[in-house]
């Protein structure tokens, strides 16, 4: 399976890197951070494509030194790790400090690559597709694997640690999602490193390499997952909003239908809150949901002076006795105030000419229309089904004449 997955995922990563670089060039925003990011995605994608079995077989027919193709693929993966270090350095530090950091990192990767090349040459082993299973018992090969794996593990761990602190400071939703996806790729890289080191130590200790075949398969799966997650996360701020449009439309249609009972009840009592029906004829589903949420909120504001002065306190105490959590308690209170206000409005009984803040809708809901809609859907359910709301309505009706 890795013969298909790794080349495909690698090609996608290379194309993503090229596309991001071209986009940055067109926008004149090719900063060092962007270049390092493109280098990391492209290098890890090319490495994944070269390390696939079909690529290794093809390279083995012309490579001057056995297993040289694998060494090239591994060095490309280390180059991707260097680019990750460069990205982190330029995001954390001023340009001069970042360049100083990279002047240390580049010699390290050169020394590690030279050590791996020396170990590969001194091992002097013929080409083997299953390199770990075939030669990991050889001390030089085991040392090669450990040097390579530890460097990748260290680099990706540093990057994942940085993302953990950077995500919380990022206001853009799709950028946060992309960074979390890259962070998941770092975890996949850690799984790959653990599998590689475990396999090398297992075989070099003299145990049978056959038992390590599942570990080798796990390492390949983790490598493919790492490449896919990093490529997807890096490009998610570009394609994510476009991909979310149909999902958002479907959510809007569903939420509009679920809001309809509450909206119809309020619109029937307060027709002035609604727009003309013709404005909805060709409206986008998301606009229709937005308008429905706004109209319900407008109705709540109109009904504030009709809320019974004790309804809020009665509902709050009943919610506390029922052991409801803070969020549910707010919903019950809001539903009780709304239901009692509807009854009072129908009877023409205004309770509070100058309503206080206790009659205002809860303000702890996110400003996103979908979040508002979810909240109001629950309010509508509680108006119809909550025993607490039913009790508050019966108590407030006692003060409504007729």
What's the helix and strand layout?
Blueprint: H1 2-26, H2 32-51, H3 53-60, H4 68-92, H5 95-123, H6 131-135, H7 139-167, H8 173-204, H9 213-269, H10 285-302, H11 311-321, H12 326-347, H13 369-385, H14 387-397
Helix pairs in contact: 1-2, 1-9, 2-4, 2-9, 4-5, 4-7, 5-7, 7-8, 8-9, 9-10, 9-13, 10-13, 11-12, 11-14, 12-13, 12-14
Give your account of this protein's structure.
The chain is mainly alpha-helical. The chain has 14 helices and no strands. It has helices at residues 2-26, 32-51, 53-60, 68-92, 95-123, 131-135, 139-167, 173-204, 213-269, 285-302, 311-321, 326-347, 369-385, 387-397. Helix 9 packs across helix 10 (285-302), helix 10 crosses helix 13 (369-385) and helix 11 packs antiparallel against helix 14.
List the main descriptive attributes of the protein structure presented here:
single chain, 402 residues, mainly alpha
